[in-house]
Amino acid sequence: MSINCEILDLRAFLSVVELESFNRAADALHMSQPALSRRIQKLEQAIGAPLLERTTRHVSATALGTELVPLVRRMLEEFDGSLFAVRDVGPNRGGLVTIACLPTAAFYFLPTVIRQFNEEYPNIRFRILDLPATDGLQAVASGEVEFGINIMGTSDPDLTFERLAEDPFVLAARKDHPLAAKQWVEWAELEPYHVITVHRSSGNRTLLDAALAKSNIKLRWFYEVTHLSTSLGLVEAGLGISVLPRMATPREDHPFLITRPIRNPEISRTIGVVRRRGGTLSPAAERFLKMLIGVWGA
């Protein structure tokens, strides 16, 4: 089913939501309030449902309108960016890439790829939403972003997952910790020590607990945190050891911390690209995704 609406209809809707007023939105768009109302009515008729709730003193988005806001905002930003970029050709062409990315990948891996990409396409801008796994999937599903970098685990039939790499769980400890003298460790060797882990609501924790349960292994979690970076801070302070994805660990030249592989069993999370099934990417996003796959797979 096709929906017939104009860019100005979308601008009208977004302005009313952001300004919470028909009067202020009309002034911002330099149009009369009746003309603005007609734009909103046209958009609601095209979609087939109300997008705004109106009272004498207040206006707000309906549940459907709230879902549409991030998608409409991204569409308008991409449209505006295309207008400025249309006269450019080749590597000078501009554009906007909007992605959702796991915080660990956004911090430790993504900057390297973006730097390489910007050397070739210096006018393409990025909006990066560094979100936990579940929130990142929702951002892709809602259209708030063009694609996501996430861990495998989605069962949403509207999303596709393309594997990029395996990210093994490893031990993080201080260099003066007894386990630091080993080249690798087994899970059973962690038992005597205070283990720091992320909260059970985390996708990483869910994956790790499930894999350990299959091998009848249960670790004694002593500290539980929300962010992987917090667990590293506790490790550095000498409060315990941590099990976390290798991508979330510090560089090899860290002054205080080391990482070691954990075996029997070896457990990893699968990192990949999440997209809407049947969806299309902007030219800028297509080019970046091609480089991302090339660099990550190298």
From TrEMBL:
<dbReference type="Pfam" id="PF00126">
    <property type="entry name" value="HTH_1"/>
</dbReference>
<dbReference type="InterPro" id="IPR000847">
    <property type="entry name" value="LysR_HTH_N"/>
</dbReference>
<dbReference type="Pfam" id="PF03466">
    <property type="entry name" value="LysR_substrate"/>
</dbReference>
<dbReference type="InterPro" id="IPR005119">
    <property type="entry name" value="LysR_subst-bd"/>
</dbReference>
<comment type="similarity">
    <text>Belongs to the LysR transcriptional regulatory family.</text>
</comment>
<keyword id="KW-0804">Transcription</keyword>
<dbReference type="InterPro" id="IPR036390">
    <property type="entry name" value="WH_DNA-bd_sf"/>
</dbReference>
<keyword id="KW-0805">Transcription regulation</keyword>
<dbReference type="InterPro" id="IPR036388">
    <property type="entry name" value="WH-like_DNA-bd_sf"/>
</dbReference>
<dbReference type="InterPro" id="IPR050950">
    <property type="entry name" value="HTH-type_LysR_regulators"/>
</dbReference>
<feature type="domain" description="HTH lysR-type">
    <location>
        <begin position="1"/>
        <end position="62"/>
    </location>
</feature>
<keyword id="KW-0238">DNA-binding</keyword>
<protein>
    <submittedName>
        <fullName>LysR family transcriptional regulator</fullName>
    </submittedName>
</protein>
